[in-house]
Amino acid sequence: MMDIKIKTFQELTTQELYDLLQLRSEVFVVEQDCVYQDIDGKDQKAIHVIGYKGKNVVAYTRLFKPGYYFEEASIGRVVVKHSERHHQYGYDIMNASIEAVKNYYHTDTIKISAQTYLKRFYNNLEFFEVGEEYLEDGIPHIAMLRN
Predict the structure, then answer these.
(1) Structure confidence by residue, pLDDT tens digits, 92-132
(2) I need a labelling partner for 131 at 20 to 30 A (CA). Which of 18, 107, 112, 113 fits?
(3) Is 141 exposed, middle or buried (0-12, 13-18, 19+ CB in 10 A)?
């Protein structure tokens, strides 16, 4: 079972910030072998959705209000620790994130920039492709929208 906490940047403890940045780096930089600037100056404006198993961060997303990243509200940096993916925590963290967008930003419309190989996962969460595939940091992505 995963425990989910939702916090603003200002509410994060130093340890929580370290742990979520470590997970993002572990997956997006090391596992996906992608050199990019993860610490992009946007975390301060995001709502952070953190999934814990005990004291360990095992899943994470960050949320942005409409007009900040896209015209619509958005969910990004969706990540689940490799060793925990068999629990389907991706669905748990995304469902919590969708609810948090509704609660914090009062909208049901969410746009994401999804890694193309995860289209089916996001389709199952009622996100649908818009536009053409594109490269982001050398990885194929597609914009997806949920209404």
Answers:
(1) 999 999 999 999 999 999 999 999 999 999 999 999 999 99
(2) 107
(3) middle
